[in-house]
Design a protein that fits this description.
- It is a single chain.
- The protein is of the alpha+beta class.
- It has one domain (about 1-140): Nuclear Transport Factor 2, Chain: A.
- It is built from three helices and seven strands.
- It has helices spanning about 1-25, 30-35, 65-75; strands spanning about 35-40, 40-45, 55, 80-90, 100-110, 115-130, 135-140.
- The strands form two sheets. It has a five-stranded mixed sheet with strand order 1-7-6-5-4. A two-stranded antiparallel sheet has the order 2-3.
- Residues about 150-155 have low confidence and may be disordered.
């Protein structure tokens, strides 16, 4: 049982690492390949908006074409300056069919034309579901900052 749990945790960590690599490479195909078809991604309006009543659905339920287009626009308009991510927790259900991860994110983008910077910083809650084809990301909360959870800007996972 413990060995199976460790395999599940390692599988989730591989997905987290693959997601990081996809962001680093601007690879929308790999990025969208991580998602379950029923994926949802609520996003807080800012990193201190802990009350979910203020959260929004920026992209709605997963739609590969729409999501790829939005992220390709991001990659076309911004340079990725820094993408530091660290997995803080992976919890797998007793049944081995669901998992939850907490990832600290410190990602800095810079607009290619204006030079304006955009910072993604905080903790992401990621829900995973086990499918016949393997683990898929089915739920993700936008980034929230918490007291006492500093994440050094230069560290990478």
């Amino acid at each position: 049982m413990k060995r199976r749990r460790q395999r599940h945790i390692a599988g989730i960590q591989r997905l987290i690492d693959l997601e990081t690599q996809a962001w680093n490479a601007g690879d929308t195909e790999t990025l969208t390949g991580l998602f379950h078809p029923h994926m949802v991604w609520p996003w807080p309006p800012h990193s201190r908006a802990h009350n979910p009543l203020a959260w929004e659905f920026v992209q709605g339920r997963y739609n590969k074409t729409r999501w790829k287009k939005r992220w390709q626009q991001l990659f076309d308009q911004y340079i990725l300056v820094r993408n530091a991510r660290k997995t803080l927790k992976i919890e797998v259900s007793a049944e081995g069919d669901g998992a939850f991860a907490v990832v600290a994110v410190n990602t800095l983008w810079q607009h290619k034309t204006t030079g304006k910077k955009m910072l993604w910083k905080g903790l992401a809650g990621k829900g995973y579901t086990k499918t016949k084809g393997g683990w898929k990301l089915i739920f993700h909360t936008g980034l929230l900052q918490y007291k006492g959870r500093a994440f050094p800007p230069g560290r990478r996972r």
